[in-house]
Design a protein that fits this description.
This protein is 9% helix and 21% strand. It is mainly beta.
Length: 396
Amino acid sequence: MSTLFLTLAFGVLVDAHISAWAKGMYCLGGADPTIDNANTNTAVGPLFDLPQDQWWFQADRGCNKVPPADGDILSIPAGGSFTVELANNRAFTTLSYNGTKTSEWPDGGVHPEDWHETTSGDCLPDGGWMHAQNESMTQGTAWAISYESELEKVTMENLVVFSVLEHSPWKRLVTYEAPAALPPCPEGGCTCAWLWAPLGCGQSNMYMTGFKCNVTDSTATTPLAKAKPPVMCGDDSSKCTKGAKQMIAWHQASGNNINTTGTDFSIPANSPAYNSRCGWTSGAQNDIFEDEDEADDKGTGSVSASVSVVRTATTFSVAASGSTSPFSPTTMVTRYSKLVSLTTSITTSSSTTEVAAAITTSPTTSPTAIEPPSPTFTTTVTPATTSDESDDECEA
């Protein structure tokens, strides 16, 4: 048994690369859904020069058709962290053989702590699958999330990068941070993807592994903004895409959102990355949520809220709570505050008075109505209809 395992494992290492491994993973046991293969490396293969319908969630090898087992899901704690394993074969994770084939490293081997190239410019000795010369050249991995339970409904626009870990992949165990404001997933969970775009040491490819995931410990309500293509902005942060960003898609037959002109992909200027070169900081991405203007672009929204307005002779304050779709109570507080400040028909008194109001307004007109006090109100906001923005490819 031991001899057979070692032969199989050694055989797949020649062309091995890296993937994240955890329960909730697509293709965890390989591309055959009838077999749970403990010695599979199906998910680690790179994506290169493929049409988008083939590289998207590893459809080229059938992984998009092999979801995780019922009940298997990756937990993403809002405001917390989660740990996964990086390996070039499931055999070298704790998900196989009771973890007996694992080490600190993704290949189950033993390497020096300062593992590095022996000749300047060369790849790691016995570690070409790492696509790096040393730890400092591992340019970053990332996680993205879509609030769609069905893989067929996930798009580049609703799959948002929410966590980045610079200088990875390196060791087997890695920990990623999640934004505190991630809202709960819908019934059926969310869809996540582990992502990597290496720096040279081989083909200019990319990696994408699918997961079924669920956000835990969350009471947030603000949705994620529509993801926009990243830009290779280098040291000029003013050129970086701000806010929610798409995964890196490059050197594919179609679906690219970054194009580069250089041919030496060991040079950072020629290679996109999940790091500051494309506008990401290491850690939780806390700028990925909708603001009020973005919520307006989504169309009709409604709010059922309890609003309390405290006014004095010179000041007012507003508090709100309730349920929303798609707007948050905070957004409605902002809207109500603007209404109060813009409406001259409100009179102040020398003593504090609590009131509530019913409001109907449009982003294209000034607020116009304040109804008599009542304990609760329901607000319907009907913004002007806007067409979706076109997603042009960005160039370095």
